[in-house]
Design goal:
146 residues; mainly alpha; 6 helices; 85% helix
Amino acid sequence: MASEEFINGLGTMGTILVFFMLCAQLPAMWNVVFRTKNVENLSVLPTIGQMMNFVTWTLYGIVVNDMAVLQCNVIGIFFAAAYLSVFIKYSTPEGRKKLFNLLGATSAVTGVLEILIFLTVTDKDSRISALGTVAVGWNAIMYGAP
């Protein structure tokens, strides 16, 4: 069995890698958004999927009591919120309305699914599996969206 220090080191390394992965979006934001002051050529769906993904994995981390999962995903929530704020700031009024509708719908779906999981799934292992399934669904949207 791996030592606790090794496992903690992997968690720390994972957190650092997630931070750099999230920073990888910065050049695109800089080149496309801050130069043109326009987000119309960027899809907000991956960023919304990213936010829902991080929220779900954060709940998963709480249920399994895993600090590494929590660290990575709380950092992710802050990055996703920052990226969403850029979309909000630089969207046209029509684009902003669509963004808020999409964000509201995805938040509602995520919230309902997670509330249902916590209210109806009493077995901890089944709850973990259900949360993981929801998170994987958001992963697919996050990475598969245009």
